Amino acid sequence: MMLSNLHRLMQIYADIAAIPVADLTGYAMTPEISKGRNEAIWAVNQFNGGPLADLGRVFGGRSVKVIDSALDAVTIRITDDQAYAERLRRMLAAMREALSPAPVLSDSTRLTAAAGVLADRNLSDADARLAALQLLRPGATPGDTTI
């Protein structure tokens, strides 16, 4: 897996877990930061088909030995603690969802949404027209703000 993809996965994990990326790549050794970093390494590795050395580079230049230790620590805890295993399973599901491309709206859905936006009296005429144009653009996805 390309390093840029690993960086993206680490960022997704950090966003979901509300952990600063600096904590994941830094060298702070507090139990809380180390635990979060180990879990992040484990989670990103679930998507990684490449060498552990790449994970080490993404997580602040750590050695393969350190990455292996992090993976072992989380794997052992998963085996011993079902609630912990379930929490990490939910984390992986959230990461998969974040990686999934947004669904493309069908033409009829885009037309219906645009008509609804244009009829909304709470929007100014200019805002309604801009939102409708965004919805009518081919390939529009939910939450897309480009014209």
Provide the succession of SSEs.
HHHHHHHH
Q: What CATH first level of the largest domain would be assigned?
A: Mainly Alpha
- Radius of gyration, taken over Cα atoms and rounded to an integer in Å: 21 Å
Average pLDDT value? 89
Largest sheet: none
Provide the structure class: mainly alpha
- Which fold name corresponds to the CATH topology of the largest domain? Chromosomal Replication Initiator Protein Dnaa, Chain: A
Binned strand content: under 5%
CATH architecture of the largest domain: Orthogonal Bundle
The number of helical segments is 8
Tell me, briefly, the overall form: elongated
Any low-confidence stretches, pLDDT <50, length ≥5? none
Spatial separation of the terminal alpha carbons: 32 Å
State the domain count.
2
Number of strands: 0
Q: Helix proportion of residues, in percent?
A: 55-70%
CATH superfamily of the largest domain: DnaA protein, C-terminal DNA-binding domain
Would you give an account of this structure?
The structure is a single chain. It is built from 8 helices and no strands. The radius of gyration is 21 Å and the shape is elongated. The protein has helices at about 5-15, 20-25, 30-45, 50-60, 65-80, 80-100, 105-120, 125-135. It has about 150 residues and is mostly helical. The longest helix is centred in the middle third of the chain and has 18 residues, at about 80-100. The protein starts with a helix and ends in an 11-residue tail after the last helix.
